[in-house]
Fold:
Amino acid sequence: MENYKKISKITILIVSVLTLFLLFFIKDLKFDYDFESFFAENDESTKFFNDHRDRFESDNDFIFISVENEEGVFEYEFLKNVSEFVDTLEQDSLVRSISCLTNMQDFVKAPFSPAVFKAPYLTVCDTCDFIADSIRIYSRPELKEMFINKEATGLLIYIKHQERISKKSCDILKNKIDELLVNYEITDSHYAGRAIGQSYYIETMQFETVFFIGLSFALIVVFLWLSFKSFWGVWIPLTIITASMIWITGFMALVKEPMNLVLTVLPTIIFVVAMSDVIHLVSKFMEELRLGRSKNQAIKTAYKEVGIATLLTSVTTAIGFLTLLTVTMKPVKIFGIYTALGVMFAFVLAYTLLPALLVLVKPPKLSLKPIVQNYWYRYLHKCFRFLISNRKRVMILFLGLTVIVGIGVSKVETNYFLLEDLKKDNEMRSQFDYFDSEYMGLRPFELVVEVVDDSKKVTDYEVIVQMAKLDSFLIADYGLSQTFSLVSVLKIANRSEHGGQSKYYKLPSSKEIGKIIKKIQKFDKSNQFGMLVDSTNKYGRMSSTLGDIGKYRVDEKNIRLYSFIENAIDKKILKIHLTGTGHLLDKNMSSLAKNLTFGLIIAILLVSLLMGILYKSLKMVLIAIVPNVFPLLMLAAVLGYLGIDLKVSTAIIFTISFGIAVDDTIHFMSKFKLELNKGKSLLYALKRTYLSTGRAIVLTTLILCSGFLLLMLSDFLGTFYVGLLLSLTLIFALLSDLFILPILLIYFFKVKK
Structure:
């Protein structure tokens, strides 16, 4: 006994030192939100996108600001404030350029003269004729719906800032905009963009991480008290769970791995997984004490009978998370790695710190109560008798439910929105939605034309004609309001050459085009031409934005676009590439379901292999897998019937669910095997397993569900669905283990004599 105490004290000392060491680093834990990290690594499309950005510029480093005036934008005081706001903000070091009607100019060539005059679109003075300006502005296709809304109550300010600026710089720029809006008395405004979104996402992630840790602690204390009704039953499990959380977050800080959007659910997952390990071990320990065993005997029996199952559940849960490595998205891979690592940390602490505490601490008085007084056994006994008496009906119900589930699974659809992680009533999403409805939208559109004929350049007339066909299709059929391209610049330049007459907003003739391109390059002080044609004159860019209409609708547009390219574009001259952040996200979403399905199959096969090694029976493995695959099918049916799209946040739930849900089956089957090895009959062994393990799996499922349901308080829709759908799946898994698994064992498992 003294030897056990000595080993326990040394164990506690070592664990305490490691915990304090990792706790020291938690203060350095960083938060990061970069949705470009969701692009597939080492993929040709990603490589092309990076090359495209090097040739031209990033397609997502901009901010839209809409300033509004109920009486209309063509009002002197309003325009004066906007003009001063734009001029001041343009001086900020983080800003590359600002475009607004108050600082933009039209270029007009005087009749019968080579001179070109600059004419501001809006001349801001108290005696100016805004009527003439408004007529000219609305006659310009490149301005309406881009820089002024249809009702003329809002002006758009387009800010290009430094590329890929940090969270700190995002905050500085946002605060500067807020300050200037107040200074220049612009009271009605909206703004959106990557810099604004990144700042909001990171701040929300920081808040929610701390918030969910606090809530999880409170919830765990409540459940532990209700379960064990003693201070001992609260502080010992809570110590293991807290240490598990410190180990994984401290380790992430130590290796400088930041928290990303997917990892915000990590604290909750580690809390509930660690709780599951502790509950099973402590419940068995207390059950043995109630049977009259000594404390040391109770510890040995608990770890002998439940310990192997706990090891297997930790390994299978970790396998479930590690199969996320099959996904090409880096944040999902990182989530899989560190969640699996956190699961194993929890297991190590359950096998070191927990037994050490059990050895050194006096057991609670609750453990002295006779086992028959426990109300769990009364209810589970009634449930078992009902199940045995109605097993044929339950089996028929299960088969009928399988048909309904199959129909639901067939209804599952894959879709993706750039702002899918924000709820519809979220203020940030409302800001982005505003620009979708009032202007062109914020989803980047990028298309590259590559000249494949070595004898030609992007600026050759034959190439530009092909690009013009494409430009016309994008506006007339694809749904873009306009494009920023060499074609649109040439149309504007041709109109300028003809005194600003709208009828000349078209491509110049083959004879004039060379001369006009030279003029554009001559007057291009800000290198706008270099943003449209690369230095080799072999690549041309066609850029725009559209609303966040979802992957399905974009796919429909792209099908029409590819058909047009196939039939109308001369492939001997041009090769067309769709690229940009929006396109890459859509492409990755398309491969997500396939990758996760592959990963899930790997998880099922590996878990089956482990069970095969444990039970040495193929039939036993098949029986055990059914009640764990069925809840996943039920989850898919829920998605199908409720119209919830399959996306990153909902797709990874299947892998997480399988890894966690299989734990209860392993505990059930391990206890069943132990009872059979004692020489019990099948029904008696099943009854003992049901009454003994049933309490632990019901209790852990309730705790797990309660922990995950907290995630529904998140502002992120993805986190909300993780909480809701994981809880549903765990309930499905519990029902499968309590009602389907026993019946499968009765019908298909035969005890060897």
